[in-house]
Amino acid sequence: MSGRIDGAAVVTGAAGGIGLAICRRLAASGATIVAVDKADRLGEAVADLESTGAEVIGVQADLTTDTGLSEVVSALDPFALRTIVNNAGITRDARLVNMTADDFRGVLEVNLGVAHRLVAKLLPRLDQGTIVNISSRAYLGNFGQFNYSMSKGALVGLTRALALALAPAVRVNAVAPGLIGTEMSMAIPEEVRDKMVSAIPMGRMGLPEEVAETVAFLASDDSAYITGEVITVGGGRSLSR
Asked: Would you tell me which of 9, 134, 152, 208 could form a disulfide with 139, CB atoms 3.0–4.6 Å apart?
């Protein structure tokens, strides 16, 4: 287990899958969790976290709006902010010729714009600590995911630029998950999913908890000399075969 994580950790996209696993893992290391999601199921996620003894505040908010961002700031008032995890993301896949302008802009707004807006809003509260951006192996390029791949690649660029701007007080890194066993992945047709798994050297999908372990490492002092990096959690899928 990685080292202790003090203070408050804001986690977006916290209601399920990778986000909820990250919340559980950071709470286990001592962080107070500010779990943010626009989904109604956030209440269930908060109850799940509280059942483990975690100190957690749920914020149901749309972070594409100024009101939503302000709600996160208000929830942080009693706490010292030490960690921001930008995990919120959506997909709206289509071939380039079929992709609507709304689907293109919508993915960029959530996957990249929310991370930028949240960091800008919370930075005055983060005088020291860490930012972890959840990118994706798709930043290397995925068929039919022009908007998603672009947003995740830009998030890597944001990570590196912030790391330069905020060092040494704040470290900024990215985690790029590959195929992870979440609700979104399990919705992929089985034959397509099996083909994707066959291209993974480790021979299986990853677990949300395995992504969460990497986030906890980057959020703790165990990674005190790491900033501006991208760690792929993909079972070797980025290797040539």
From this structure: 152
